[in-house]
Structure formats: structure tokens, C-alpha cells
Amino acid sequence: MINSDVIRFIIVGHVDHGKSTLIGRLLYETNSLPEDKIEEIKKTSKELGRDTEFAYLLDHLEEERTQGITIDTTQVFFKTQQRGYVIIDAPGHVEFVKNMITGASQAEAGVLIVDVKEGLKEQTRRHSFFLSLLGIKQIIVVLNKMDLVDYSKERFEEVKKELESFFDSLGLIPLSYIPISAYRGDNISKKSDKLNWFEGPAFLESLDALKCRESKEKEPLILPIQDVYKIQDKRIAVGKIEAGRLRVADLVRILPSGLKTKILSIEKFKERPQEAVAGESIGFTLKNDVFIERGSVVCSPFNGPSFTDNFSAIIFWFSKDEFSKEKRLQIRCATQKTTCKVERIRERIDSSTLNVIEEDAEVLKNLEVARVDIKTKKPLALKNFSEVEELGRFVLTEEGNICAGGIITSV
To answer: How far apart are CA 154 and CA 381, in angstroms?
Structure first.
């Protein structure tokens, strides 16, 4: 019997360590591919003079096929007897880090893939740090290409020990380390005789052991407003409930005004529900004529988010242009936006080694991480990322271009 729960997980790792091949193999092993797609893969592989390459399922862009790298974030669905999965395939190349972070922000779990022959590389370390930064606690590490080291237990243990040391520095403990060969299909859906020394689970077994994200229904209400529509005589506000529940006749507070009012109705297409819960995207109307617009946040009248113009955060600067504290940036958090200034760069950090480059710095360079204090032009409804992700995660933009992503550590 298939569980109705669906888990979203991201696969990250250094370029060419086998992410796309692993995903293609997963789809093949779970009978998620139509016969004509398998034939297409075989034909494409033959035309390029290679053995059957499952990676071509994901690297569908011509540029990716010729360069051999994944450029954008791809989402793919498959299911086991246990439940359904959405795979977020993130780019491994250093030039596409921004896309990788965007994908990771949607994931409940992470899979780090490492070429067991090459071991830890710069992007392996950087992507591990991103998983930590984004609060992903459920992590499975797969050591791929075991066929290239003759399925050596010694090499597996050597790389595993190095990875354990690095994860320890991040304060993370992966759920499992699994030796595989995505190309040959070893240890993917079932245990491989070539890896009979390994006593742990096959990769699909480890996925089925993941836990779904806990519901936030019992937490105080948080509902960022996406838009407001005028339909006949109704002004219907719409948005996704990030935490809590909303009921008809509930008393709520509207930020930034701080005014309190009651919910008159909950609107769904061809439905008139009396309540909605965390995770649902809904429309609703208010009893009083209270002003509400995109960027407003509807919350509990007594236990809402902080409403402030300053906070501390960790940011990742991925613009190629150097950042200096004189720059004015725009901040976007949920549907809220305003201008802001980084008042203090407490630490500049090398994202691949996690070493502190400089304290009380004046500049940030491409692919550096920083602990910063930020002041916004107008107050925003904010929470620590560890409490409510949607109000604790933000991006910084300059002239419309995203130049940094961050999480709030203290408001």
C-alpha cells in the first residue's frame, strides 16, 4: 500500500560525481520510465559513442549534453511501495550555485553524492555547508563509482572517515553512508553481491526510512499575502498558510498596520470551507474594511512574528561583483520587500573550507559566506529560520538581480 505522503529531497555534489546518472538509475529501477524513453536514452548514448547513460534523462538541454554538466534545477517524481518522492536535481558546477540554493530551499532531506575515487572536492564541502545553512537535518551520503575502485571496502572507509570529520565540523550527523555504483546499478534498489561487505541498506531502503516534515498546524498563524483580488463585491486576499490554521470568525492581526479583524469567509473554488491549515493555499475575506495588500502578513493576534527593522543573519554572496557595506540592496522575505543596508560584516567565511577569512570586514567576494547585521528601511514581519522557514529566509537583490541568499539567526 502506497503512503500518501510525498518527500522532496535534493541531490547535491561536485560536478561529474554522478547526480544525473543516479537519478536516471532511480527512475529505471522503480519502473518510472516509459519504454520509448529508454530507447531514446540508448539511441542518444550510441550516437555519442558511449554505453547507456541514464544521465541523459536529466541533462535534456543540448548545452548540458555537450558540456556534461547540469545547469538548472530539475524536479522529477517517482514512487516506491512506501511512498512518492520528488527529486530536486541541483547543479554541481560552481557557476550555478544560485540555482542549487534555490532548489535546496524546498527540500525536506538531502543526498550528498561523492565520487569515491576522487573523494572530497571544493563543491562537496560547499554543498554540505549549504545543507547545513538551510537547516536540512536528514542527510544521506552516497559514495558513488565504487566500480572504479574495484568495490574496495578500504577506499570506502577512507573517504567515509574524511566526510565524517567534515560533517562533524558542521554539527551534522548523516543518517547513513552508502557505497553505490549508479552507472552499474549496484546497491541502488537492492543489495549488491559486489558489496557484500557492506551491512547497511541499499539506497532506496534509506530513502524509505526518511521522515516527512512535521505539520505546523499547531503553531501560531502565519499567512503572507500573495495578492488581493476584487471579485464582484468581495476583496479576496490569497496566500499560503505557512504555520497554524485559519477558521471563519477567527480574530487575526494584519501586519504592518497592526490592526485586528475577523475572518469573514474562506474561499476555495467551488467550496466554502470553514477552516484551512498550514500548507494550504487559500483565499479569504475580512469582516471589516481593513487595508491589506501583497506583502502584508496575517498572524495570530497575540503570538505573531517579530516586527522589526534589524536582525542578524548568515548570507551567501554569489554575485561576481564584490560587495561593500556602502551598497544599498533590496531584501525580499516571503512576499515582503524593502531596501536594506548591511551594517556590520561580523565574519567573512570561505564557503569551501569554512575558515574565517576576516572579522569586522568591509567587503564580501564571490562565493563567500558572512555573518552579518542588517537594517531595513521599514520594519518586516520576521522569525528565526529555525522557527518558521518562510519568514526566516530571504534574498538580497541589486538592480533586480539576486546577489545573495540568507537565513535569519536572530531577530
So the answer is: 52
Site of grid cell 564571490: 366
Residue type at position 215: S
Residues 318 and 126: their CA atoms lie apart, in Å, by 12
Residues forming beta bridges with residue 324, ordered by sequence position: 363
User: Is residue 10 within 8 Å of residue 90, measured between CB atoms?
Assistant: yes
Tens digits of per-residue pLDDT, 91-139? 544 444 455 455 455 678 999 999 999 998 888 888 888 787 777 889 9
Output the pTM of the full model. Answer: 0.73
Cβ–Cβ under 8 Å, residues 244 and 222 = yes
